[in-house]
Amino acid sequence: MQDALLTKEQKKLRDEVRAFVRDDVPRQLILDMDAEKVTYPRQFLEAAASRRLLGLRFPEEYGGRGLGWA
Q: Residue 44 and residue 60: Cα distance in Å, rounded?
């Protein structure tokens, strides 16, 4: 996706997700998930939750970020 089409908020989220994958997700886990050898393990979900990457559309008062679909 072209950067020019993204809002500042979307760019920030993109950068957060990239950092999460780079720092917290082992490469082999990504390959195994892609090959459907493993589903989302608890460790992955806990790491994503700690960075508030789950429930992005939920209102902030419920732990989400209150984001839209795009």
A: 22
Domain ranges of the chain: 20-70
d(CA 69, CA 7): 13
Q: State how far the Cα of 31 lies from the Cα of 21, in Å rounded to an integer.
A: 12
Task: Please calculate the CA angle 60-57-15 and round it to the nearest 5 degrees.
Answer: 90
Query: Please, which residues have CB within 8 angstroms of residue 21's CB and are 6 or more apart in sequence?
Result: 30
Alpha-carbon distances, residue 65 vs 6, 18, 36, 44 (angstroms): 17, 18, 29, 19
- What's this model's pTM, rounded to 2 decimal places? 0.75
Averaged over 3-11, what is the pLDDT?
Answer: 89
